[in-house]
Amino acid sequence: MKQEDANGFGKIFENLSLELRRGTVVLSVLSQLQTPQYGYSLVEQLRDRGIPVEAGTLYPLLRRMESQGLLESTWETDGSKPRKYYGLTGAGLRMLKLLSQEWQSVTKAMIGLLKEE
Amino acid sequence: MAHDDVQMLERYVYAVTKRLPHNQREDIAQELRGLIGEMAESTGDIETVLRELGDPALLADTYRGEARYLIGPRYYDFYIMVLKIVGFAVTLGIAIALGIGFFFNTPQSVGQMFGRLLETLFGAYAGAFTWITIMFWGIERYRSSKGIDEPLESWRLDDLPEVPQRSAIIPRTEPIVSLVFLVIFFAVLNSTPWLLRILDWRDSVYIINPFIPEVFKKMLPLFNLTIVIAMGIEFAKLYTGVQSKRLAVLTIGLKLVSLAISLYIVAGSGIWNPSFVQDLAYMLQKEPNEIPFLGRFWEFFPSFLVIVMVLGYVVETIETVWRTWRLKLPKDAT
Questions:
Q1: Which residues does chain A have within 8 Å of residue B30's beta carbon, measured at their own beta carbons?
Q2: Domain segments of chain B: what residues?
């Protein structure tokens, strides 16, 4: 019984922390695409810098952000394998600035909240 | 990459892209091939990579991004409620209709009886389920195509319904009971032509039909239409759950349509069998002039029905209006 409870708690934590991180993915992507990159190098770079995002999540997200006009893409076919490079558009850059400010104010407020504990 | 690996990769890519719109397939396939190739290079094993990417159907869902469902959360509860009520009504209605049917036309064995009961029931469940689902799917598609369900912008504080007065609340049992009766009526009307005959059970069976069968058959869709309208009214009551001006206007309007159809059937379609009294007299072994009362009654019967229906409509309308406006309901309460 105890064991089950512990498992349930762990599962809930996993879900909640995933949910907490989910909101940061778009901003993370915007921040890393000021110089264009192709999908998998972005996956690796985000993972190495502590924001792991699954490829199955990131690839569709890149397309969606492209359709929202935040990113633009070009196929590079020079190398041995064709790669699709994504980079920020003007709107993407503006969005990055706005969302960064938003992030700053949220973290500041959150730090305040957590200190009161 | 080994041949097997390439094959597996292609199978995976196909499993994802076949679920996507045509114009995106090629591009996404290219992208996925690149991604899987790259991931396989760093892990060395294509199976691990594909497992990590997960169920192709889910990946395709993520690519599509939009919700894929028949009936969304907004209507789901009501949908389930309607299914339950209709299931209950259908069960009861069919049991009663078949019960009457068995009385007149006794099945040869208990097994046969249950067989027919189950067959009819499952047919009716399947039909009811299909139509209700199609109806809700239609509403769902219509609302989302109109953007009616777009959140927040279109929502105003004024849209909140007034807390209803106690007396304005329609008890759920009221429409449910009506629905049960409507289903029974529907089942009887559509499955049991014997009801329209008067039988002589002493020794032989005379078939005497108050209706002309061909006309009755032609009128059956109209009969059914009035039943469907009545069901619609009951569902509207069930959905809103509160007496309101809009509901009252809807009820009065729809009932007027029903009344018009019924009047046509009764008075304008020539559905009544003119030789009914004669046949009846023959069965009773009498001359028609020996039962003058019946003859006159039959002559007057359609007009009698017309009067009853029109009076019924007027009384019901007055009652609805009185009940609704007496409550001093706010305009928007729905």
A1: 75, 82, 84
A2: 4-9+15-64, 69-160, 192-334
